[in-house]
Write a structure and sequence with these properties.
157 residues; mainly alpha; 0% strand; elongated
């Protein structure tokens, strides 16, 4: 296995690891707030659960980039591609948008979800509006996902 492949695999791993850590932290924040609301009003469970889960998408996005990347490298059931060191670094760099933006946006989406959960606790009829706040943070994770997918799928061409 070449050094370029190793660098590329590390980049792919970072996409999952960093976005996953951010998602875990964001979902944990939301879960703590949601548990408080449900302890007072169990009828709000479904609404606050949805808000809690929103920061979890970044971890899924990171995992998607990792799967696409490993597939491009031939690590998933094919013959491993011949990757130069330069291509390995390009591949590593292609994974950084979702790794970094996924990590940061998941944490901030968790904080926004906590605020939205508080809104639903006080005004359950405002759930639709409360969903929009964390969804706006999601936009940047989606943009990072698209950039990483486009970059990862074009490094070895």
């Amino acid at each position: 296995m070449s050094f370029g492949v190793v660098i590329a695999i590390v980049g792919a791993g970072l996409a999952t690891i960093l976005a996953g850590i951010g998602s875990a932290l964001g979902v944990a924040m939301g879960g703590q707030a949601a548990a408080g609301v449900v302890s007072e009003d169990p009828a709000q469970f479904a609404k606050v659960l949805i808000l809690q889960l929103l920061p979890g998408t970044q971890g899924i996005y990171g995992l998607l980039v990792t799967f696409i990347g490993l597939s491009q490298l031939g690590v998933l059931g094919g013959s491993i591609a011949n990757v130069s060191t330069e291509q390995g670094w390009a591949f590593f760099t292609a994974c950084l948008p979702i790794a970094i933006v996924g990590f940061i946006s998941a944490i901030h989406q968790g904080k926004t979800s906590v605020a939205s959960i508080a809104l639903v606790a006080k005004k359950p009829d405002q759930f639709g509006k409360a969903m929009l706040f964390p969804a706006m943070v999601e936009t940047y994770a989606i943009l990072a996902l698209l950039i990483s997918i486009l970059a990862v799928t074009n490094v070895l061409k």
